[in-house]
Specification:
128 residues, 6 helices, 5 strands
Length: 128
């Protein structure tokens, strides 16, 4: 049975290390990249079963751009936006509001500081 692949894009090496470690323990293949550019390079020839994207990488909206591009080509790929923007900048998003749903092309928005079990349940919701 083929392992499901998760694209993990985050410019924080500590987040990459911690999340990648747990994803692999849970049995997923992980493609970990540290920038939107690297993620786009991967997407040219590969397609994940799910993507976890940091919102702020090279630009403040890198995660939104990546999510839009993934959904444009593969609308069935679940995308989770992970960010600390609320704590760092005081900005928050509600992707369930009609206004936000029109431009935020993600399935879930996750505030950093989340528990790994919370992430696991979310991934299972989309992949099982």
């Amino acid at each position: 049975m083929r392992k499901k692949t998760i694209l993990l894009a985050d410019d924080d090496p500590d987040v990459i290390f911690q999340v990648k470690h747990h994803l692999e323990l849970w049995g997923y293949e992980v493609v970990a990249v540290e920038s939107r550019v690297e993620a786009e390079r991967y997407l040219e020839s590969g397609c994940p079963d799910l993507a976890i994207l940091d919102l702020m990488m090279e630009e403040e909206d890198s995660g939104f751009i990546l999510s839009y591009r993934i959904k444009k080509c593969r609308p069935d790929v679940p995308v989770i936006i992970s960010t600390a923007v609320a704590a760092e900048r005081g900005i928050s998003f509600d992707i369930n509001s009609p206004g936000s749903r029109s431009w935020i092309k993600a399935d879930h928005y996750l505030e950093k500081g989340f528990r790994m079990e919370q992430l696991r349940l979310l991934i299972q919701k989309y992949l099982d």
